[in-house]
Write a structure and sequence with these properties.
Blueprint: H1 29-42, E1 46-50, H2 55-60, E2 74-79, H3 84-94, E3 100-103, E4 108-111, E5 117-120
């Protein structure tokens, strides 16, 4: 069952929940705040493709064994009609010394960490 608790102006708890249906719905406040900031900046639909993950789902999608997704400290998403490369560049300008920011072909990964890390899939 989807939890329609509103977490920010544009996001609800179910959007950050594990996609396998197990019920895991944890989401770090900072990750929600960052995605909301992106949504507000572009004024476009943001879709969270992967938020929290239970261990089984994380393994099934090939996630790292100690992924921040397991703790709700990471989320992958897309911004409607905005290339992931542009989102990654914007994030790096906003947060030059922290966050994990990964760029997939069609999505952006953001995780909460104290130092900067960048990569492409």
């Amino acid at each position: 069952m989807r939890d329609h608790t509103q977490l920010s102006e544009n996001f609800f708890r179910y959007e950050f929940a594990c996609k396998c249906g197990c019920g895991l719905q944890t989401a770090d406040v900072e990750i929600i705040t960052i995605w909301q900031r992106i949504r507000t900046h572009y004024d476009r639909l943001v879709t969270i493709n992967s938020g929290a993950r239970c261990a089984a789902h994380n393994q099934a999608v090939g996630g790292y064994p100690n992924s921040r997704h397991l703790r709700g400290e990471a989320a992958d998403g897309t911004v409607d009609h905005v290339p992931a490369q542009e989102v990654q560049a914007l994030l790096r300008s906003w947060y030059p010394n922290k966050l994990g920011i990964g760029r997939g072909r069609n999505f952006t990964h953001i995780d909460v960490r104290p130092s900067a890390a960048n990569w492409s899939y």
